[in-house]
Amino acid sequence: MFWKFDLHTSSHLEALLEKEDVTLTELMEEEDVLQECKAQNRRLLLFLSQDHCMQELLHLITTEPPAGVDEMKRFKYPNIACELLTCDVGVINDKLGNEETMLETLYSFLEQPSPLNPLLASFFSKTIGNLITRKTEQVISFLRGKEGFLSLVLKHIDTSAMMDLLLRLISCVEPAPLRQETLNWLNEEKLAQRLIELIHPERDEERQSNASQTLCDIIRLSRDQANQLQEISEPDPLLAALESQECVGQLLQNMFSGERTESCIVNGIQVLLTLLEIRRPVVDGVMDAQGFERSYAVNSSILLAIQPQLIHFHQLLLEPPKRSPMLTTLGVLEEPLGNTRLHVARLVASLLYTSSASHAVVAQELCRLNTMDLLLDLFFKYTWNNFLHLQVELCVAAILRPCEQALSEPQTPEPTVTPENSAHNTLVTHLFQHCQLVQRILGAWEENDKIQLEGGMRRGYMGHLTRIANTVVHNMEKGPVHTQISRLIAELPEECRGCWETFVDQTLSETNRKNTIDLVGARNLRHSSEDDMESPFPKELTLQQAFSDYQIQQMTANFVDQFGFNDEEFTDHDDSIGATFDRIAEININIDAGQDSCCDILWVIWFLVPAFVILAALCSSVSCTVCLVVCIHSGAGWIADFGEVNSKAPAAGAGFAAWDSPASHPATTETEEKGWAKFTDFQPFCCSETGPRCSSPVDSELSGSDRTKPNQNRKFGLHSTTMII
User: Fold this and answer.
1) What angle do CA 274, 156, 58 make, to 5 degrees?
2) Per the database entry, which stretches of residues form a coiled coil (predicted)?
3) At how many degrees (to 10) do helices 118-134 and 136-144 cross?
4) Which of 80, 251, 463, 535 is the most core-located residue (most Cβ within 10 A)?
C-alpha cells in the first residue's frame, strides 16, 4: 500500500527547470519528460509553451535531421518532440491551434519536394491529426484557406501518412454540421475523382496502392457513419460520387487503358469489391424499406458501369499479365495463376451474389461469355490453389442459391423479381448443361481415386469439390430453384444420371460421414499441454469429473471477493484473518456414482486433502482450526461443509492430537452412530468382480482373495467418513 503515502521524490527535471539557461535539448534528455508533461507539470508546460520552444519542436518534426549522426540517435529528438506535441495537453493544443504562425510552420512540411521522409511524415500526420480532433474549427478553417492543400497531399500520397491525414479529415471532424461542411469542401475539390486518376498504369505502384486503399477506407467509413447516425440531413457527397456510374466507369477505363499491369488491375478491382460490399441498415433484425431502396440503387449504378467491361475481365482470365515461372514445394509452376486472375474470380463471385434489377444484365453477359466454364477449367487446372477453389465454390453457391434475401422480402417495392429470377434460371441451366457441372464432379472424383490407388497424393481441390457436390444435393432438395435442378439432373444421360445417384448415395455419403466424425470424445476433452503428462488418475472417473466441475464452478466473477485480501485484513486483529474463511458457507458436489465406483471416493479424498492441509497450516498461526466434514453415501450426493468447530487451544506443553481416539469422548457409541470412521474395520477396496479398474496407490494385494465375494450393500467398507485436518 505504498501508493497511500506521498513518497514521490523530486526528479532531476525539477532541478533543470530551476536553471535560467536550461535548453529544450537538456529537458528532452530526461527520461521522465513525457511523463511529467502528461501529468501537466506546471513549470514544464510553461517552459514548453514559449514561442521559441514550440517553434523548435515543430522544426524537429518537419526538418530532415543531419545525415552524419548514428541512425539510432538521428530521430531521437524528432520522436520526443512529436510525443510532446501530441500528448493531448490543453496548453500545447491551444498554442498550436490558435496561433497561425505555428500552423504555418507545420504546414510548410507539405511544401517540401517528394519523396518525403516517411518517419517525419508520420510525425507530421500524427501532430496535425491530433489538432484536427482537438482544435477542429481552427484547423479546418486554416486548411480550407490553403488553395493547394489537397494537391500537396495527393502529391505525397505515395507516403502512407498522407492517406491517414485524409481519413482523419473524413472521420474525425465533429460536430455533424462541421463534418458535412468538410465533406462538401472535399467533394468540391474533386477528391474522389482525383484519387481514381491515380489508379492508372502510368503511375507507380506505391501511389496506386495507397490511392486504392484510401478509396476503400472512404467508402467503408462513410457507410459506417451513415448507418450509425440516426438522422442524416444530407447524404455523404464523397460516397455518392464514388458510387456514381461516372466514377466507376472512369475507374474501369483507367484499368484497361494502355498496357494492362497487374498492380493497376488488382487495385482497381479492390475498389470495385468494396463498392459491392453493401451494408444494409437493419433495425431489430428487419431491414427497412429505405435501406432496401438505397441498396438497390447503389448496386444498379455499379453494375451498369461494370457490365460493358465484363469482356475485358473475361479476357484477363485467358491472357493475364505475364508472370515468370514460380518454384513451389511440388515443383516449378510454369504459368502461375497470378493475383490478377484470382481477383477477377473474386469479382465474378461478388457480382453473382449481388441482387438488383441490373443483375439480370450481368448474368446474361456472363453466360454469353461462358465465364463460369472458364473458371471451372482453372479450378481443376490449378490443383493446389485453394484461394481460387474457394472463389469458384462461392460462384457455384451463388448460382444455386439465387437472391435468397430478395426473394424472402416481399415488402420490396421493386417490380423486377421475375426478370431477376429468370436470369438466375439461365445461369443454373448454363451451369448444368453447358459447363457440365455434374460430369466434371464425377470425372474429377474418379481421377482422384485412381491417383490415390496408385500411391499419389489426394488432389488439393477435393475438399472444395465435396462442398460443391453437397451444395448441389442440398439445393436440389430444398433450394430456391430445387425444381429446376431436379429437372436438369433428370435430363442427364441415363448412364451419367445413374453414376450421379450412386455417387450421392454411397461415395458422397461416406465422405460426409468421415468428415463429421468427432476427432475427440466429448466427455474426455483435455488441454493440449496435458498430452505429454501421464496422469495417475483413471481416464473416466465420475468423481474426478465432478471435482473438476467443482473447481470450474468456483472460478466465478466474485472469485476475488471470496478469496482476495482487503486492506483491513493486514491488521493485528485475529478476527479479520479468519474472515476470509467465514465467507465460505457450503460447497455442494452432486455425484451420481455408478456401481463400479468403489475406488472413486478415495481419489476425491486424495485430491482434496492436500489443499485443506495448506489451509489448516495457514490458520494454525492464529489458533484457528479448519474442519472438513465429508459425508459419503453410496448412490447419493455428498456435502463438504466448512463450519466452525471448537478450536480451544490445548494446554501448555500438550500436543494437539489430530486423530484423537473415540475413547476420549464421553459417548463412544453415539460417536460411532454419527459415522466416525473406524480405520481398523476397513475392508479391502474391490472395484469389481473381475479385478481393479484403475491403478491406485492403495495396496490392493489383499483384494485378490476376496475378489469373488459379493457386496450387496455396496458400502465400500465404510458408511461415512469424517476427517479433521
Assistant:
1) 120
2) none
3) 120
4) 251
The 3 state secondary structure assigned to 558-608 is CHHHHHCCCHHHHCCCHHHHHHHHHCCCCEEECCCCCCCCCCHHHHHHHHH
Q: How far apart are CA 224 and CA 222, in angstroms?
A: 5
Residue-wise pLDDT tens digits, 292-337: 444 544 668 899 999 999 999 999 999 999 888 988 888 888 899 9
Q: What is the largest CA-CA distance in the chain?
A: 108
DSSP letters for 41-52: -HHHHHHHTSHH
User: Minimal CA–CA distance to 351: which of 365, 330, 337, 369?
Assistant: 365
Q: For the whole model, what pTM was predicted?
A: 0.69
From residue 90, alpha-carbon distances to 96, 127, 137, 233 in Å are 10, 14, 16, 33
Of 151, 90, 152, nearest to 124 by C-alpha is: 152
CA distances from 383 to 109, 442, 454 (A): 52, 16, 18
| Cα–Cα distance, 216 to 270 (Å, whole number) | 8
Q: What stretches of 10-70 show up as alpha helix (H) in DSSP? A: 12-17, 24-28, 33-38, 42-48, 51-62
Helix axis angle, 118-134 to 76-85, nearest 10°: 10
Residues 480-530 pLDDT 10s: 889 999 999 999 999 999 999 999 999 999 999 999 876 665 555 554 444
Can you read off the three cell numbers belonging to residue 573? Answer: 486483529
Strand pairing report for 638-643 and 587-589: antiparallel
In three-state secondary structure terms, 292 is helix
- Packing angle between helix 417-429 and helix 386-400, nearest 10 degrees? 130
**Gap between the Cα atoms of 655 and 644, Å rounded:** 21
Residue 697: count of CB within 10 angstroms of its CB = 9
Q: If DSSP codes are grouped into helix, strand and coil, which group holds residue 25?
A: helix
Q: Which triple of cell numbers denotes residue 524?
A: 474426455
Amino acid at 74: R
- Helix (H/G/I), strand (E/B), else coil: 638: strand
The DSSP element (H or E) to which 421 belongs, if any, is helix 417-429
- What H or E segment, with its residue span, contains residue 327? strand 326-328
Residue 628's DSSP bridge partners are: 642, 723
Question: How confident is the model over 649-665, as pLDDT tens digits?
Answer: 444 444 434 344 444 44
Report the C-alpha dihedral over residues 215, 217, 218, 219, rounded to 10 degrees: 90
Q: Do 337 and 385 meet the contact criterion of CB atoms below 8 Å apart? A: yes
Which H or E run includes 287? strand 286-287
